[in-house]
Write a structure and sequence with these properties.
The chain is an alpha/beta fold. About 20% of the residues lie in helices and about 40% in strands. It contains seven helices and 18 strands. Strands 1, 2, 3, 4, 5, 6, 7, 8, 10, 11, 15 and 18 form a twelve-stranded mixed β-sheet that branches. The chain has a six-stranded antiparallel β-sheet with strand order 14-13-12-9-16-17, with no helix packed on it.
């Protein structure tokens, strides 16, 4: 619950067919609610919207006080990483099937947004991962992830061998197709399909899930998010690290991927009455026994 918002920025999945009309409709609705409205620059350029100012993420962070994201969870992941450092709240409107983090149906956006823009909403914050790749004592890459950091084998390679340390303690050498370190938000994404557990977003933890482990006793483990996970490349060809599915290809033997909790969190706003469990029920089709 908070005061009303003044300046919204609209971010859209601009590849989606017919999105321009939807975005302009939402923009005019927000203007009607008394807000100033801008468009994220790539969204404006790729849809041809010219009635509203187009601004880049830095301007968004400095000038806007809420982002309205129209698309799927992938669209939300991308802009969430960009805006987290400015602590800007995000609200997600889904054009297709409702997502885990874009939870307002497009045909209900007016009923949902009107009270939210006036300050009546539910808010939650989600932790992020800070991932780095180190080679010969030098940091050669860093990136933020809202879902996960994944180290995995190349398409033609047989497997990877990874050395895992947590807070300086040796955990295991794992022979597998790869390894996922996921936030609670990411626990319902790739980690879930690899057999990992669902972590409630209020839990200060990560889930570490081997992908097709060659040892049946290598199981998913839930770790506290207060430390650092280090994943060393012991063996394997064409090994890559993915940060929310953004690729850093060709890790070398001896490289190390380091994962720790980011200093930034993502703020999600939901309509009043929103429920995490209702989202799980809908997305995972837990309908049995529901009247």
């Amino acid at each position: 619950m908070g005061a009303g918002f003044r300046h919204a920025v609209i971010v859209g999945k601009y590849q989606a067919r017919g999105i321009r009309q939807v975005l302009e409709e939402i923009a005019h609705f927000l203007v009607g609610q008394g807000l100033e409205v801008s468009f994220e620059r790539d969204t404006a350029l790729n849809t041809g919207v010219t009635d509203f100012e187009a601004i880049d993420p830095q301007d968004m962070g400095q000038r806007c006080d809420i982002a309205v994201v129209v698309g799927g969870d992938g669209t939300m992941l991308g802009i969430a990483r960009e805006l987290a450092r400015w602590k800007m709240p995000l609200v997600g409107i889904n054009q297709g099937r409702l997502g885990f983090i874009t939870d307002i149906a497009i045909n209900q956006y007016k009923d949902a947004l009107a009270p939210m823009m006036a300050g009546d909403y539910e808010e939650e914050s989600r932790s992020m991962l800070q991932g780095e790749v180190w080679r010969d004592g030098d940091k050669i890459f860093e990136g933020l992830s809202l879902n996960d950091v994944v180290v995995s084998r190349g398409a033609t390679a047989s497997m990877v061998e990874l050395r895992v340390d947590v807070d300086g303690d040796f955990v295991a050498n794992m022979r597998a197709d790869g390894l996922i370190v996921a936030t609670p938000t990411g626990s319902t994404a790739y980690a879930l399909s690899a057999g990992g557990p669902i972590l409630h977003p209020a839990i200060g933890g990560w889930v570490m899930v081997p992908i097709a482990s060659h040892t049946l006793s290598n199981r998913p483990i839930v770790l506290p998010d207060s430390g650092e996970v280090r994943i060393g490349i012991v063996a394997g060809k064409d090994v890559s690290a993915n940060f929310d599915m953004h690729n850093l290809a060709s890790l070398m033997i001896g490289d190390q991927v380091r994962v720790r909790r980011s200093a930034f969190k993502v703020r999600f706003l939901h309509p009043r009455g929103w429920s995490y469990y209702a989202t799980l029920r809908r997305k995972l089709r837990w309908y049995e026994g529901v009247v």
